[in-house]
Amino acid sequence: MxxxxxxxxxxxxxxxxxKVTESExxxxxxxxxxxxxxxxxxxxxxxxxRKGFLSIRHLLAKAGYVDHDLYYDANGKPHLKDxxxxxxxxxxxxxGIIVAHTDEVGIDIELQxxxxxxxxxxxxxxxxxxxxxxxxxIIRKLTIxxxxxxxxxxxxSEKGLSFLQHIDVKEFTFQEGESIAEIxxxxxxxxxxxxxxxxxxxxxxxxxxx
Length: 210
Prior knowledge:
6 helices; 35% strand; five-stranded antiparallel sheet; globular; single chain; alpha+beta; four-stranded antiparallel sheet
């Protein structure tokens, strides 16, 4: 089973990343789903989505959980029954989770693609990226910013939150591998750490509420 990477963020926060290379039958072995999740699984028309769904259950096992330990609230945000915090992501060949004992956390994995340049104006100010050397660098940086905002949105989990208007990711360099971000929404302000890594044409961003 290809557990791709484990990152110990702090003694109480861990990231688990899976590279999906198995068949659906291989991934299904040993996995017991709740009725709710079984119904979700059966409704998935895409094999890639089903395989991603099953691989996340293997990641849960690596973190010491089974599917029955997981539930979702009215906004679709995942929770663990023991009170620990969890966030989940799936993008093509990779899935990931972040688990934390006390901190609110979010994670996102994105495939680096050129089309992000066409939608950049929806979540950031594109003119801020004109100083970068080439399109590849712009795509990488935009993907980090998008992933950070996705991770933050998963933490905040409130309808109406705008990537462009309410979430601000501070300036960073590729070498730093980290940044900070702020959410300002409905008169409230909150801050978050942002860490990122790149592998095999993908970007993983995870965030912790400060």
